[in-house]
Design goal:
The protein is α/β, with parallel strands linked by helices. The strands form 4 sheets. Strands 3, 5, 6, 9, 10, 17 and 18 form a 7-stranded mixed β-sheet that branches. Strands 13-12-11-14-15-16 form a 6-stranded parallel β-sheet, with helices on both faces. Strands 2-1-4 form a 3-stranded antiparallel β-sheet, with helices on one face. It starts with a strand and ends with a strand. The longest helix is centred in the middle third of the chain and has 17 residues. The protein is built from 10 helices and 18 strands. The protein has 2 domains: about 170 residues, Medium-chain alcohol dehydrogenases, catalytic domain (Quinone Oxidoreductase, Chain A, domain 1), CATH 3.90.180; about 130 residues, Rossmann fold.
């Protein structure tokens, strides 16, 4: 089979690899579509020690069951799934907070991922797809679930209902775009997205129908937003988020660009700011996201760009150079 292999920083190559073996309780999927994530780009840049050269990246996927050693699935069924492989026994898993399982592993990180014509995964990680959802749309389940999980956590902390809030999303990449689309679906009118790439700003304006700004040219209003989402996670965006949030407001931190930085703890304390972190999603979030995608909660997803797997090296390079307007490239191994 053809597989896209991360060979060294700033290089991915198409290699020929044997199809995955079928392990007990697992299935082998034909990968129909797989999205390039920001964490895949982090690995591509050589900044993720967990993802080493020789690895097939990719964890945002939709596929068809080819072979099954799981009683849950039969060949021919269309699925997406949870790339986090959890123990199912710890307190977090039993609470339905499986994203916090300390024993978790992950496709595209600790085992070969979805940038290939086939991939193996435990059957318990999979979710059936409705016929109305295309494979390209379904491949956005994972990043869309990240946005949905973050918004659900935030709504527990907001003092007023979400539609009444002035909301700032920092970053117009895939997570920022999907968060903006879901915020609009939830009834938020006072929405601004801060993004440095002018092509992405234009895409956000067109598809999310909201205001945008270039944070290099115009600083978001200090204390102007009851709810701020940092979908970048750099030292600079954390400073912007804390400055922009209003007293009593909520900052949701999603992005993982920088590992650590100083924040304004004095404002956090004196203004009673709620600072939340979020990591991925639960299985319940993923199931809810498949249903949300199917009913159009994230729009028509026409901003997503499709590429054949053979074009992946060029797609990675263009994403690295910031020359694409799209916030998401989806690879099609059989395209």
């Amino acid at each position: 089979m053809k597989a896209l292999v991360y060979t060294r920083p700033h290089e991915v190559q198409l290699h020929e690899r044997p199809e995955p073996e079928l392990a007990d309780g697992e299935v082998v999927l034909r990968i129909d579509a797989a999205g390039i994530c920001g964490s895949d780009m982090h690995a591509y840049h050589g900044h993720d020690p967990r993802r080493q050269p020789g690895l097939v990246l990719g964890h945002e996927f939709a596929g068809t069951v080819l072979r099954s050693a799981s009683e849950l699935w039969q060949p021919g069924q269309r699925v997406t799934g949870n790339p986090l492989i959890t123990c199912g026994r710890c307190d977090y898993c039993l609470q339905g907070r499986d994203n916090l399982c300390s024993q978790r592993t992950m496709v595209g990180m600790t085992r070969p991922g979805a940038f290939a014509q086939a991939m193996s995964i435990p059957g318990r990680c999979l979710i059936a797809l409705p016929d109305t959802l295309s494979s390209v749309q379904a491949a956005l389940t994972e990043p869309a679930a990240t946005a949905l999980h973050a918004l659900n956590l935030s709504m527990r902390a907001l003092v007023r209902p979400l539609p009444e809030c002035r909301v700032l999303v920092i970053g117009g990449g895939a997570i920022g775009m999907l968060a903006a689309l879901l915020l609009r679906h939830y009834g938020v009118d006072a929405l601004t997205v801060a993004e440095v790439n002018p092509m992405r700003r234009a895409s956000v304006e067109r598809h999310a129908r909201c205001a945008t700004l270039d944070p290099r040219a115009a600083t978001p209003a200090e204390g102007g937003f009851e709810y701020v989402i940092d979908a970048v996670g750099s030292a600079a965006t954390r400073q912007v988020a804390l400055a922009a949030v209003a007293p009593g407001g909520v900052v949701m931190h999603i992005g993982l660009q920088d590992w650590a930085s100083e924040i304004d703890m004095r404002k956090l304390t004196l203004a009673e700011i709620t600072l939340l972190g979020t990591y991925t999603y639960s299985m319940a979030d993923l199931r809810a996201t498949v249903a949300a995608l199917a009913r159009g909660a994230f729009g028509d997803l026409s901003w997503v760009e499709r590429r054949p797997l053979r074009d992946a090296p060029r797609a990675f390079d263009e994403l690295h150079r910031g020359v694409l307007a799209t916030a998401k490239v989806v690879l099609e191994p059989y395209g």
